Model the fold of this input.
Amino acid sequence: MKALLYKEFRLVTHPTTVLFLLLSAMLLIPNYPLYVTFFYCTLGIFFACLGGRENGDVFYTVLQPIQKCDAVRARILFAVVFESAQLILAALFSLLRIRLLGAQNAAGMDANLALFGFSLLLLGVFNVTFFPLYYRNPAKVGKSFAVAAAILFLGILILESLCFILPIFKEKLDTPDPQFFPEKCFVLLFGAIFYVGLTFAADKIAERRFAQLDV
Done:
C-alpha cells in the first residue's frame, strides 16, 4: 500500500490538485458562502482522476502484482490526504479571517467549528457518491463527478439555507466561536464520524464494483 500511495502522489497528482489547496484562502472573502471552498478540493480529486484516465493509470496499476482492491484503497486514501490538507489549511485561514474580518458572515455559515463539521459531512457525501460511480466505469470520470458535484452543491444550498430558516442554526450554530461551543463541538464530532463512515462505505462499494470491471 505504501508503494501504491507513493505512485498516486508521484504519477497521479495533477498540478491543479496542489493549486486548489491554496484556494483555502477563499475563507478570507467577506460575505461569501464558505462551503464552496471545499468544492475546489473535490475538483482537485476529479482532475487527478481525469489525468489518470488520460495517462492510462488504471490499466497500468492493475498490471502490477497487486489486488484490484488495493488500487481502489490507494486512490481513496490519496483523496483523504488531500481533503485533510484542505481542511487544515482552511482552519488556518479561518483563524486569520477572524483576526482580519471577524467571524460573522452575512452570506451563510460563519467561520467556526460547525462550518468544519458540516464540511466534513459534505466531503463524506462526495466520496460515497463519486468513487462508487467512478469505479463502475473509470472512463466516464466526468459523468461521475458531475453527479457527485450536483449532490455536493445541493448539500451546500441546504446547509446555507438552514442558517436563515432553523432557529438552532441562526441562534447557535451560525455564531462566532466560542459562543455555544458544546453544540458546535457536537457538530464537528458528528461530521467527523460521518466522514469516516461514508468514506469507508465509498471504499467498500468501489472495491466491489471495480472487482467486477473487466479492465
Summary: The first helix runs from residue 2 to 12. The chain has one domain: 2-211. The chain has a mean pLDDT of 91. Residues 2-211 form one domain.
